[in-house]
């Protein structure tokens, strides 16, 4: 392969901007004609077989979601239409960066992927145990994950890769501060909160859309692992969290999470001081308090890990009437990438597998493909429109993807024009007590061991801007002096 000094696509054409996806205006949705974005995400999804490229190590369980409060003013989704109504759910927890055989106790965000088997189809919310993420734009996702994986030459994890990327990507500082705090290593999966992380939407019967953030508060209380204990468990019991979840359910100690939403009107979003679709930032709970929705309980273990957990396929493109997405650039990229990853990893008919199939009646014109497990539509027509009155027809009801007004010239808008990388991690740092701050500094310093000084200087300059005490304490712990 002839190497070019210029970054190019697979076809050799030069790429002018590899930092920003094409959107309709600075806050508008991502455009499908961004061939660089599509090529990066599609290629990234096919880099590894057979395990998931991310979230490879996971555990899951079945359960039920129960409505406790009326939110009909926000959504006409049928799963919310009656207080006390229950909907089957499947929840998969995971670590993000490690392989299938990696330790459950790694310092890593925990995936928190929920599948609701509603009477109108499957609804998936893919989130984490943190309310924010490292990047704002899905065009950077393959780059970021590469830094969390292995060096292509040594096949070893390399802290230089990780900190080099973060030092060039200050929007990651909020998530980094959470990751290296006392909550960076949860004590199993039961003792941590979960979040939808992204901004989603709900639509009511009058067609009014509301932007929402999903929060899941554990009823078991928060428990975290000391880094030394986590390291010990990584060697003695790398399946610690998987074992804990499975055994708790077998003992009928069914874990529960209370479900809440933050809500923001479209008018509030248009005038809000920050981009409400930026997944590197949270919404103020003082301005947008939590509203109770219900709770879910995990009460049944899978009968077969491969059939139910490994083949489970989540995708935020699975929405139902009364729910929707948002212009969040990370979420919009995932709408494509997750479903595409499942088609590659499990197969084009992945949604026919029992763990992924809807529990309500369904019909479409998809035919053939590897591992077609049903009658393949029999002798029914496989096109639309058609003249057969028995053939499935469109409902002509309001679409789950609520229509939006798009404005702005198509282009690649620099997401770093918002340079407020520091105020939210600063607020988080100030909330910590002395012991939490000391642990945070210790954890960060440990992760920086062996990192080149020029990368450290660039990274530490950001931490000083978050809070002088934060940056200087970290520099002292690392053992270098920050250059002026």
Shape assignment: globular
Q: Report the mean per-residue pLDDT as an integer.
A: 91
- Which class best fits the helix and strand makeup? alpha+beta
CATH class identity of the domain at 22-158 and 185-360: Mainly Beta
Strand content: 15-25%
The main sheet comes to: 10 strands, antiparallel
Q: Using DSSP, what is the number of strands?
A: 12
**CATH arch. level architecture of the domain at 22-158 and 185-360:** Beta Barrel
Organism: Commensalibacter intestini
Domain Catalase core: 8-392
EC number: 1.11.1.6
GO molecular function: catalase activity; heme binding; metal ion binding
Label this structure with key terms.
484 residues; alpha+beta; Catalase HpII,  Chain A, domain 1; 10-stranded antiparallel beta sheet; two-stranded antiparallel ribbon; Catalase_haem_BS; Catalase_3; Catalase; heme; EC 1.11.1.6
Please tell me about this protein's structure.
- The protein has 484 residues and is an alpha+beta fold.
- It is built from 13 helices and 12 strands.
- Helix 11 crosses helix 13 (468-478).
- It has a domain at 22-158 and 185-360: Catalase core domain (Catalase HpII,  Chain A, domain 1), CATH 2.40.180.
Helix and strand topology:
Layout: E1 22-24, H1 35-45, E2 58-67, E3 86-95, E4 110-118, E5 121-128, H2 141-148, H3 159-168, H4 173-179, E6 194-195, E7 200-203, E8 209-218, H5 227-236, H6 240-250, E9 256-265, H7 266-271, E10 291-300, H8 305-310, E11 323-324, H9 329-345, E12 410-412, H10 423-431, H11 434-447, H12 453-466, H13 468-478
Antiparallel strand pairs: 1-12, 2-3, 2-10, 3-4, 4-5, 6-8, 7-8, 7-11, 8-9, 9-10
Helix pairs in contact: 1-9, 2-3, 3-12, 4-10, 11-13, 12-13
